[in-house]
Amino acid sequence: MLDISGNSNIDDIAYGGGSEITAQEFIERHVPEVLKIAQVLIVPDVPMTAWIRIAQHFNEYSRRCDDIVGAVLIRATNSLEEVAFGLDVIIQGSKPFILSGAMRPALSLSSDGPLNLYNAIATAISPLSRDRGAMVVFGGKIVSAYYVAKTNANSVDTFKSFEQGNLGIMLGGRPMFYFEPAQPMGKRWFDVKAVKEDELPKVLILYSHIDQDASLIEAAVRSGAKGIVIAGGGIGVLAKQPRQIAELVATAGTPVVVAARPFTGVSVPVLLEDLLIHSERLNALQARIQLQLALATGVQAHKDIREMFEGLFHEHIFKGNWGTAQRRETDDDGGAHQDKAGDYPDKERVIEGDDQEKGEKGRTMKT
Prior knowledge:
Organism: Kwoniella heveanensis BCC8398
Strand order of the largest sheet: 1-2-3-4-7-8
EC number: 3.5.1.1
Protein name: asparaginase
Mean pLDDT: 85
Region (Disordered): 325-367
CATH topology of the largest domain: Rossmann fold
GO molecular function: asparaginase activity
Number of helices: 8
């Protein structure tokens, strides 16, 4: 048995061994070729949670400094898809912002990090990369940061966009794009000049399943959540009891966004007026980021948040019709459903917890 727990060069499990090196040392040792194609300004010791600050600095300096042609962020891959989406909806201007990383350690027999870094920088300096928003360059592929997802826990070929496809590939150390520059339909941008990353509202994600414990929705509110995202079955459907509790929470002022639990597809909005908001194309991770940014930038009204998530669907599928006050009924397991007119049941529920803004203990929810 080969030792993979320490300094082995086949370690792709424990990620152990080796001493920490700076970004400059990494470039000089593993990929000095980048110094032949670009002047690289290294910003060291950036906290992994500082993506709001990174976007703020990029927006400011890319506008002021003509000699900055783009930016590259190298970070851990476990949360890369979340940060990529968040950056894509707050990055301004035409200059490219590229994200990349590595699935294998630098000491691995065939580490993917050096080539990913080279390709990321090569894409950032290319004039062809302008006006495309943020992108992920990984494993020789170029993917829109808006649609990217980590699809495999172990493989180097992990960052993909299954339904929308890649924007291009890397060939001979240069990006080759398949399409002219374009932005995703219905994409919303957020102005975060006055937002701090440690002030993003708390938004929690819950996962629907058979016999889902609806009390977790209430627990999320008691814990201080300002918004909730639920990964619903199929097209974003909740079973009867979780839906009722989610509606009560939404009535009391905490927005609840329902995403589709399957890996691809759409959380389908209803034509009728709905207390719950459907994330449309966004998965649960993306919906959480968008809801956080919406709340942080002052979007509070239910109708405004709903339009932000569902606007494209209503415009193109429902032809601009937002319906009237109706209710979507579900069966007990969240499967088949139908839309019915009628009032919501007269229910009252109290969720205990401190409401600092109102100075109240507890929150009464009535529909």
